[in-house]
Amino acid sequence: MGSMSTLIPAFLTPLGRAWLLGFELRSTLAPEAVFAAAATPEALSTWFPCHVSGSFTAGGELSFRFEGASREEDLVLPGTLVSLDAIDGGAVPDRWAIDWAGDLLTLAVSDAPGGGSLARVSARIDQLGRAARDAAGWHVCVAALARELGDPAAPGDAEWEPLFASYAQAFGPDAATELPPGR
């Protein structure tokens, strides 16, 4: 696709009894192109951390399969496509929200000031101790999306460990008490 993009590191904001992790990805591509490259079931396989299947319509049931997550079997988590709509009431969707085993993941793509697009990826999490872990994981994923958009300057395969350390320092030790299985 041949675009340039900028990935802004995650922010963490209290949200009632939950926490909001958010990322911004600026691209020179039009919002419609970014949404198509990021939000269709086929596109998710290029940047999402697991295989997503199910009904990709508002209210549709989804499943999230992490292959080989354990020695015995794949890990499969349930979810729902909560919404799929247009931010400004347009005909082409540019925002979705997914309930992923209790977390709410959102993607919204809009026009960026000065041209191009701004993609916002956010995750509402219920435990502060997961923040550094989840921020590092989503950072890896959003960097993969930047590469998928054709950005030659996008970070290579971002490594989870240094990102976790960076987010643990930025968010504080209470935000770094949970690690992924096997770490």
Question: Average pLDDT, to the nearest integer?
Answer: 85
The string of secondary-structure elements, in order, is: EEHHEEEEEEHH
Based on secondary structure, the structural category is: alpha+beta
CATH topology: Alpha-D-Glucose-1,6-Bisphosphate, Chain A, domain 4
Query: What share of residues is helical?
Result: 10-25%
Shape: globular
Computed CA radius of gyration, to the nearest angstrom: 16 Å
CATH first level: Alpha Beta
Feature tags:
183 residues, 4 helices, Alpha-D-Glucose-1,6-Bisphosphate, Chain A, domain 4, SRPBCC family protein, single chain, START-like_dom_sf, alpha+beta, 8 strands
Characterise this structure.
With 183 residues, this protein is an alpha+beta fold. The chain has a single domain, classed as START domain (Alpha-D-Glucose-1,6-Bisphosphate, Chain A, domain 4, 2-Layer Sandwich). Helices cover 23% and strands 36% of the residues. The chain contains four helices and eight strands, in the order ββααββββββαα. Strand 6 (95-100) and strand 7 form a beta hairpin. This is SRPBCC family protein. It comes from Galactobacter valiniphilus. InterPro entries: START-like_dom_sf (IPR023393).
